[in-house]
Design brief:
There is one protein chain. Helices cover about 5% and strands about 35% of the residues. The longest helix has 8 residues, at about 15-20. The protein has one helix at about 15-20, and strands at about 1-5, 5, 30, 40-45, 55-65, 65-75, 85-90, 125-135, 140-145, 160-165, 185-190, 200. With about 200 residues, the protein is mostly beta strands. The structure holds copper (II) ion (CU).
């Protein structure tokens, strides 16, 4: 029988713990409780203002404090997706409510840095740069961050915060509003995710 993953605080039994613990904002991990951040995953499912799917952002913490971020825009059903570069950030808010996803608040900036390019030093921890949306309304980008964790309860955790895609490109220099990226066209809250990858057998 395949063991899926254990949650930090609900090591109760195989099928049950997945249903009980892992969708309630707790990080789930392979290897049992207290094994650091190895293998923790989380996902933000992006939606536009009409509730149409806009894609997703997958976060994977393979080593503690090192998070791989895979941004996958798939907005074929959205009328608000436009071709070109769009700013994408982790914001400090924990919801994606109307009007205009303003409930997502400002950029997530736990280290009190200036806004900037994630490929250069000096930027908000939530700065993910720009993602290019192609004519078919899809786009992909990968980034690795050493400025966040998926472990709940830590100051640097991104779980529970909102990812925002903006209508315009991030210029990386304008500080207010950050990046001068205009309105918000898609949003998704980062949720802990259960992997179905088998890690043990018995
Ligand atoms: Cu933003």
């Amino acid at each position: 029988m395949f063991v899926v993953r254990w949650c930090m605080t609900h090591k109760l039994g195989i099928g049950v713990l997945v249903a009980v613990g892992c969708f309630s904002g707790l990080a789930c991990r392979s290897g049992g409780a207290g094994s650091g951040g190895a293998g923790t995953t989380a996902v933000a499912m992006l939606q536009d203002h009409q509730g149409q799917s806009f894609g997703r952002v997958l976060f994977t913490e393979r080593d503690p404090g090192i998070v791989q971020i895979e941004m996958m825009i798939d907005a074929k059903s959205s009328t608000t997706a436009t071709e070109g570069d769009h700013a994408i950030h982790v914001h400090e808010g924990t919801s994606c409510d109307a009007p205009g996803f303003t409930s997502a608040g400002s950029h997530w900036n736990p280290t009190n840095e200036k806004h900037g390019d994630p490929d250069h030093s000096g930027h908000h921890a939530g700065d993910l740069g720009n993602i290019e949306i192609d004519g078919d309304r899809t786009g992909k980008k990968k980034l690795t961050s050493s400025e966040m964790t998926l472990v709940p309860g830590q100051a640097q955790t991104v779980v529970g915060r909102a990812v925002i895609v903006h209508v315009k490109e991030d210029d990386f220099t304008t500080q207010q509003p950050p990046g001068n990226a205009g309105g918000r066209i898609a949003c998704g809250v980062i949720m802990s995710e259960v992997s179905t990858q088998p890690v043990a057998q018995n």
